[in-house]
């Protein structure tokens, strides 16, 4: 799934899978910078990375479904994203028939000091043959 | 306007080809052109939500600069950081269309700016996404307003 999404290539984002636990990796690249004075990653890039992590983790959990659609996300910025590799892990808090709730955290040096967090709801496409289920 | 040049020259804004649409004392609008390499869903050709997130964050920040300059006069000499951003997606963006984001900073305090923004193709009343954001100033807004 990852290789098929052009925007993930634009970000330079990759992911490592250990069983069903996924770690998303965003290596630093100059075009991701939003503030050249610090320099810091663009807040939008961090938000996008968190959202893509949530979508990828859902794809790992539900490989047969089509790509989920984002309903809403709340992104909290905790520390500046510095010019270095960023990691993220997603926690699927609830997965229903139609809607999933996912929390994601991103960090750089120390996982206990996250740079940003996301909470979001995602609309799952109903798999074929499931439409008639109550 | 210095803010306008900064708005399109930061590396990520340049990489996404952000275009300044308008700026005034309370708000700003910017656009991002559709591009093949920004697609988030290859089945539909719809641009990734992350591109719109970045455009919205960017134009929200610009609207804060506009509001501060209008309120305090002169150039904004301090930094600011996004505190949070809540984005609601009403519908997918139309494939192969430019997306515009319009942001208005509706309240400034000494340390925080509150912003709302909308992303759309043609009509603000038919939004792709809406945003509610808060920004924190990393220094006092100005000597006068810090009093």
Polypeptide structure, described:
The complex is a heterodimer of chains A (134) and B (147). Chain A contains 2 helices and 8 strands, in the order αββββαββββ. Chain A has 134 residues and is of the alpha+beta class. In chain A, the strands form 2 sheets. Chain A has a 6-stranded antiparallel sheet with strand order 1-2-6-7-8-5. A two-stranded antiparallel ribbon of chain A has the order 3-4. In chain A, a hairpin with a 4-residue loop joins strand 3 (33-35) and strand 4 (40-41). The longest helix of chain A is centred in the middle third of the chain and has 19 residues, at 43-61. Chain B is of the alpha+beta class and 147 residues long. Chain B is 28% helix and 37% strand. Chain B has a 6-stranded antiparallel sheet with strand order 1-2-6-7-8-5, with helices on one face. A two-stranded antiparallel ribbon of chain B has the order 3-4. In chain B, strand 6 (99-108) and strand 7 (112-120) form a beta hairpin. Chain B is elongated, with a radius of gyration of 15 Å. Mean pLDDT of chain B is 89; it is low at 143-147. The interface between A and B is large, with 36 and 37 residues. Strand 5 (69-77) of chain A pairs antiparallel with strand 5 of chain B, so a sheet runs across the interface.
């Amino acid at each position: 799934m990852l290789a098929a999404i052009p925007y993930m290539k634009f970000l330079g984002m990759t992911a490592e899978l250990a069983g069903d636990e996924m770690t998303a990796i965003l290596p630093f690249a100059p075009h991701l910078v939003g503030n050249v004075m610090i320099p810091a990653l663009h807040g939008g890039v961090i938000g996008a990375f968190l959202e893509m992590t949530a979508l990828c983790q859902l794809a790992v959990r539900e490989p047969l479904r089509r790509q989920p659609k984002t309903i809403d996300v709340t992104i909290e910025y905790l520390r500046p994203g510095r010019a270095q590799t960023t990691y993220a892990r997603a926690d699927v808090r609830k997965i229903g028939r139609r809607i999933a709730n996912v929390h994601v955290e991103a960090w750089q040096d120390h996982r206990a000091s996250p740079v940003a967090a996301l909470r979001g709801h995602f609309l799952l496409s109903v798999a074929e043959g499931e439409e008639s289920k109550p | 306007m210095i803010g306008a040049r900064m708005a399109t020259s930061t590396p990520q804004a340049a990489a996404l080809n952000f275009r300044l649409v308008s700026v005034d004392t309370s708000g700003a609008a910017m656009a991002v052109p559709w591009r093949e390499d920004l697609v988030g869903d290859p089945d539909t050709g719809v641009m990734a939500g992350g591109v719109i997130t970045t455009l919205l964050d960017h134009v929200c920040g610009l609207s804060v600069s506009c509001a501060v300059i209008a309120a305090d006069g002169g150039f904004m000499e301090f930094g600011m950081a996004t505190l949070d951003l809540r984005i609601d997606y009403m519908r997918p963006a139309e494939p192969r269309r430019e997306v515009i984001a319009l942001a208005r900073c509706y309240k400034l305090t000494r340390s925080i700016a509150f912003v709302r923004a909308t992303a759309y193709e043609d009509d603000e009343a038919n939004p792709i996404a809406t945003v509610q954001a808060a920004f924190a100033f990393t220094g006092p807004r100005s000597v006068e307003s810090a009093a």
